[in-house]
Structures are given as structure tokens and as C-alpha cells.
């Protein structure tokens, strides 16, 4: 009786791509919203754009109409363009987290709840100052818990401590882009409506610690250790001009008002301005 030839080892199977979370037009939980966001923002850059946007729009059409649209068809781009004209508030061709919250009906929607509490960038900066109690430039989990507690009270939402911890963890998962367990100013500002998020205008401005120190010293003309409203006005005008930022006079007034909301009685100290101009990480 002849021996059986040894069987060739089976080739390892390629791992299956994670299944897309179903889009639906009925209420979804905050956790489901987060799963949907993370799936379609596949590169994790904070936007749904390009091919991600095509994929999202196709799935959204299926959820809305029970039938999808074929990206290869001539009418697809036109339909998507019409859709984006309604939801893309800053016309950048991308969907941001706050814009997605307007599209999907989310139960316990932190973003929309937040807007009942903080409707403008000035109010947002004032809230930041109030809850960043140690002036670290970050809102940590215990500070965030206090922030959400006040938020829910003002929105007349019922909650217990267990639910509050769950909400805090969900917000961290949504906005803590670098996974350090705390929220920097630009991360937290993603809660703002896009048109109110003035920090987006400063994304192209990246200053090192030395550059910031030189900038602060130059505009602190009297050397008193803080910048007042007039000094900030000159600083912002020069900064916008240097970085070729297209900002109207009224826009500049709004930026100045928002940043001054961080100040202590009209005195903008080094730490407060550094939070805005050096983003969340100041490199030497």
C-alpha cells in the first residue's frame, strides 16, 4: 500500500476588510456615529474626502432611498455636488465631524447638544478658559467630565454618573486624535460648527517655541508680559499678511474677539496666545 503524498500547506487567507457600519436614517447612538466616522475617514486625517466621500455618498443614498448610485455613472458627480452644496458649510469639498452630525440623526448627539451651550467661537474660547482649570493648554478627562456635566444640565438631559463617564470616554474617542487621553484646543474645536471654527484658518501657521517667543516679545511693546487688544490687532494683521491668509476686516475682528476671550481681563498672557498660535504641540 503506497503512502499518501504529503499535502501542501494551505496558503494563509488574507484578512477580511472590516465591514462598513450600516448607515441608517433612524437614530443612531454616539458609539455608532463614531464607528461610521472612523470607517469613512479611513486615513484618520479628520475629513471625509476624495474616494472616502464617494463611498460615503453611495452608502448614504442606499440608506435614504433603498438604492445606491453608481460612481461610474455620469450623474453621480452631479448628485454628489448638489449634496455637498447643502452640507459643506465652508465649501472645502470635505465633510468634517460637525458636518456629519448634521447629516446623521444621532441619539445623544454631543455635537448638537454642544451647540446649544456654545454657539460661537467666542463662547467656545470662554468655555475653554473656564474648563482648562490648570491652564495646561489641554482639557483632561476630569476637566472634560465637568464640562459635559454642565453641558447636559444646560440642555436639560437626564444622566447619572455612569452615563457621564460613558459620555466622557466617547468624546475622548471622538476627538482625541493623538490618543494621549486629553483634548488640545484644536481637537476640542472640532465640536464647533465649521463656519465658527476660526482655528481652521490658522492651520497653516506653525510656530516653534523660539519663533513664538520672538513674536510675543515684538508685539509686547511695553514689555509688561502680556498683549492687550490693540497689540493683538497688529499681530493678527501682520500674521495674516505674512501667511497670505484671505481674511476680511470683519473676520479679523471676530478672530481677535475669540482670542481675547482667553484673556484675563483684557490681558492676554503668553500661555493663552501660545495655545492658539502653536497649536497643541510646541516644538523647540
Write the layout of secondary structure elements.
Blueprint: H1 30-40, H2 50-65, H3 74-87, H4 97-103, H5 110-117, H6 121-131, E1 138-140, H7 141-154, H8 161-175, E2 182-184, H9 185-188, H10 209-219, E3 226-227, H11 229-242, H12 249-260, E4 268-269, H13 270-277
Antiparallel strand pairs: 1-2, 3-4
Description of the structure:
The chain is mainly α and 284 residues long. It has three domains: 30-103, Recoverin, domain 1 (Orthogonal Bundle), CATH 1.10.238.10; 110-196, Recoverin, domain 1, CATH 1.10.238; 199-277, Orthogonal Bundle (Recoverin, domain 1), CATH 1.10.238. Helix content is 51%, strand content 4%. The protein has 13 helices and four strands. The protein has helices at residues 30-40, 50-65, 74-87, 97-103, 110-117, 121-131, 141-154, 161-175, 185-188, 209-219, 229-242, 249-260, 270-277; strands at residues 138-140, 182-184, 226-227, 268-269. The strands form two sheets. A two-stranded antiparallel ribbon has the order 1-2. Helix 11 (229-242) packs across helix 12. The longest helix has 16 residues, at 50-65. It is globular. The termini are far apart. Residues 280-284 have low confidence and may be disordered.
Number of domains: 3
Number of helices: 13
Helix content: 40-55%
Strand order of the largest sheet: 1-2
Question: What brief labels describe this structure?
Answer:
3 domains; 284 residues; Recoverin, domain 1; two-stranded antiparallel sheet; mainly alpha; globular; 4 strands; two-stranded antiparallel ribbon; disordered C terminus
